[in-house]
Amino acid sequence: MLLVIFLVYFVITPNEISMDMLTSGMTVLPSDPVPDFKEPIQNVTVAVGREAVLSCSVTDLGHYRVGWMKADDQTILSLDTRVITHNPRISVTHDDKLRTWQLRIRQLKESDRGCYMCQINTNSMKKMLGCIDVLVPPDIDDSKTSGDITVSERDNVTLVCQATGQPEPRILWRREDGSHILLRNRPDDSESVDTFSGSTLKLLHLDRRQMGAYLCIASNDVPPAVSKRITLNINFAPSVHVLKSLVGAPIGGNAKLKCDVEAYPSSNNYWIKDHEENLLNGSRHYIHEKKAYAKIISRHYIHEKKAYAKIIMILTIFNVTKSDLGGYQCVASNSMGRSDGSIRLYEVKIPTTTTTTTTTTTTTEAPTTEYIFENAAVTSPRTTDFEMIPIEEEPVENWLFPSVAPASLELETKSSAEDHNNFSVLRLVSVMLFIFR
Fold it and tell me: Any signal peptide, and if so, which residues (predicted)?
């Protein structure tokens, strides 16, 4: 008997052990109760990295023993409370009161998924299975997922996103900036959606509005969800849009001309005067560009985003002279083509101011009153301000110059003290005539 135990624990390797070997050399009395399983082993589902526990409850064990084995490869894991396998993540605990043997696997790995067998070494081997399902968070497979891509306008493109995980991940697509995904079956048949489900996103008959970053999001209810950013670039020829083709400025003032340009790849932009003179930065010209922003309205919020491939060309002309008046062209060109827009600069006449004196005399002996319009700001109990309406005004600043409007015209009434007394007498006479009429 001692020889058998020695061979089991010290000589035979774990993969060579069978539970039937433990019964050899053992004497079983007819009166000994036959052990049995108290209840089925509950299957468990555990996320990777956590601890999985399988519980095997046995009744009337007596001098028999309980062991654990992995079902698929018949690897012996433990005998009674002794761990046979060399895997340090596996342990066995025994609750003598409950007659329960627990197989514990710490830091669970995906390779631990499968069924495990609890055995009792009776003459007719008794066994019961319990299974472990390992949940694995999603992971995007870069080798099978699309990367950044550049195509031309009106082409077709297919974006692919593949992910692994347990359970199988769900794939959801959305635009990074919150704008809609434009789906087309034909050029004149389109549908705008916030999100798209599926591992393959087909975009047909592309236009520049579909340019930008797309997010492939993989989730399977096992945190964390993961995503990959795929940038779709669409090549197209420049498009120039002039919001205001006529711009006015006074001589000596400043003028600002603007053009909106869309192009990809980025265009080479410049300004021309009267189709001849190429304008450069200098003491009287300031040329610069700024990024354009678009307002995005989604279901729940409004925000601004940088518009892809769109800029604003700005030409500022200082101290406008007669020679600056005329036509200006904003030009944009790239490898896909060329485009331009035209703006005409004209002179704004500033109105001159005059002083008018009006004298009114009545046929009665009422006082003489003078009404004098003056440019100077004079404090008076009776004044009337005349607001100067700008000749040209636009919501977005187009030209800047100091205010040259005349000061408010004021209506001043002048009368002597004697005239005031005469007026009082006249008013009294008028009242008496009204009473006795």
Answer: 1-19
